[in-house]
Amino acid sequence: MKAFLKNYRQSPRKVRLVADLIKGKRVSEAFTQLKNLAKRASEPMDKLLASAVANAKQANAKIEDLYVENVTVNEGIVMKRSMPRARGSASRINKRTSHIMLTLVEKTADKKEKKAVKSDKKEEKAPKVKTIKKVVAKKSKVTKEAEVKE
Question: What pTM does this model have?
Answer without folding.
Answer: 0.70
